[in-house]
Amino acid sequence: MTTVAIVGCTHAGTFAATSILNNHPDWTVHVFERNDSLSFLSCGIALWVGNHVSDPNRMFYSSPEALTEAGATMHMQHDVLDVDVQGKTLHAKDMKTGEVTEYTFDKLVVTTGSAPVLPPIEGLHEAVEAGSVLLCKNWDNALTIKEKVKDAKTAVVIGAGYIGAELAEQLDSIEVKTTLIDALPHVLENNFDLAVSEAVEKAYTDNGVTLALGQKVTAFRPAEDGKGITVVTEKGEYTADLAIMGAGFRPRTDLFRDQLQTIDNGAIVIDKYMRASAPDGTVLSDVLAAGDSATVHYNPTDVADYIPLATNAVRQGLLIGENIVEPTHEYLGTQATSAVQLFDLTMCATGLTHASAVKRGFDAGTVTITQDYRPDFMLTTTPVTATLVWDKSNGRILGAQFLSKHDVSLAANVVSVAIQGKFTIADLAGADLLFQPNFSQPINFIGAVAIAATQQ
C-alpha cells in the first residue's frame, strides 16, 4: 500500500489529492492543511468587498468533506512542523489540541502555496498584529477585510498589481476614499505597457482614487488620533482608517530549505513532470510539487519562473496523479495569461510586456493599434487598443495586451495559444479568425495588430 503525504491544500493541493485518488483509489492519501477550509478563490476577495458576490460560500469549489468522500485522510488545522524528505517522515501539530504526531510516507507532494509579501518596513509587523494593516490572501483575511470596511471612510492600498488595483477600485465603488500606493511609476506596471497603464490611471483619477505612484513605503505608524494608520512614503504621508497590503506573494517553502532545489525566492524547482530535485539537481521521483510553492515553465522565455496564478496551480495539481508513479504527462508551461476589469475597462494580457521583454534581453518589437471591435455600420461599437510584442530575431510572439470597454478578455487566450504554439507574427496575421458584424471587423483586432507588426 502506497502512502502519500500532501502538505498544503489550496488549489494545487486540492487538485493533486483528487487526481491521485482518481488514478490510484487504493492508496492512502494524507492531506495536511493549517486552515479549517480549502479551495478558497482569493481572487474573489475584492469583488466581495465591492458587493459583487452572490454568496461568499460559493467562493469555495471543494471542501474537506468532499476530499474525505473521495478517499483522502484529512488533517485540517494541522501545522506541519518539519519534513524529513530523505527519511520520509513529518511531524504535524493538531492546532486545536496541541498534540504532535509523526507520520511516514512513501511519496511527498509539496503544495504549501504562498504567503503575502511583508517587506522589512518600519512598523509593518506591529500594524499587522494590531489589525490596522490588513492582508489579502485567505478566507480569514477576506472575512476581516469585509467586516472592517463596513465602518471605514478612508483606506490606503499598498501595491498596484492585480490585488491592490482591484481592491482600490472596489473600495472606491463602496464610497471608501482610497489612496493607491506603489513604488513603481505606473499602475499594473509588471502586467501592461503604457498604452494600458495610462488609460487605467486616468480611470482611477476620474473616479476620485488618489494615486501615489513612484513612492516607496518607508514606515507605518498609528494615526495621531489613535484610530487609524499613517503610511509614510519617500514623498509624503497618507492617513486612513485602515490599510491593506497587496504587494504580492512569496513561496511558502521554509520547511524544505536545504532539502530541495529552489530558485532565489525559495520556489521549488520542478521538471516537466512536477518532480522536485535535491539541492545538487538529482531528480527525486517520489517528491512532487505544484502551485505557488513551485516554479513554472514560462513559455515566452523558455525558462523556469515564479508566477503564482490559480490557473497554473490547478493545471500542475492535476498532473500530480498522472506522474506520481512514473513520468507520463508533460506540463505544457504557461504564458501567465490573465485579465482584470477596473471601472468600465477590461484589460487582459498574455506573455511578456515590451518593457519586461527588453529587461530579459530580447531585441523586442512592439506595436499598438486602436480600432473598433466591430464595423461602424452597427448601431454601436467600441474601440479596442491592442498591443503585440515579438522577438525581432525570429518573429516569435512574446506577448500581447488588450484594453477596451467591450469584453475583450478572450483575446488574451487566443494569443496565449499562439505563444504556446510558437507562432510568429506572420503566423498570427494569417490565422483564420471569424468575421460576423455582430462580433468582429472583417479583420479582427487580433489579426490587425499582427498585420501591423509584420509591417514594422
UniProtKB/TrEMBL annotation:
<keyword id="KW-0285">Flavoprotein</keyword>
<dbReference type="InterPro" id="IPR004099">
    <property type="entry name" value="Pyr_nucl-diS_OxRdtase_dimer"/>
</dbReference>
<keyword id="KW-0560">Oxidoreductase</keyword>
<dbReference type="InterPro" id="IPR050260">
    <property type="entry name" value="FAD-bd_OxRdtase"/>
</dbReference>
<dbReference type="GO" id="GO:0016491">
    <property type="term" value="F:oxidoreductase activity"/>
</dbReference>
<dbReference type="Pfam" id="PF02852">
    <property type="entry name" value="Pyr_redox_dim"/>
</dbReference>
<dbReference type="InterPro" id="IPR036188">
    <property type="entry name" value="FAD/NAD-bd_sf"/>
</dbReference>
<dbReference type="Pfam" id="PF07992">
    <property type="entry name" value="Pyr_redox_2"/>
</dbReference>
<protein>
    <submittedName>
        <fullName>NADH oxidase</fullName>
        <ecNumber>1.6.99.3</ecNumber>
    </submittedName>
</protein>
<dbReference type="InterPro" id="IPR023753">
    <property type="entry name" value="FAD/NAD-binding_dom"/>
</dbReference>
<comment type="similarity">
    <text>Belongs to the class-III pyridine nucleotide-disulfide oxidoreductase family.</text>
</comment>
<dbReference type="InterPro" id="IPR016156">
    <property type="entry name" value="FAD/NAD-linked_Rdtase_dimer_sf"/>
</dbReference>
<keyword id="KW-0676">Redox-active center</keyword>
<keyword id="KW-0274">FAD</keyword>
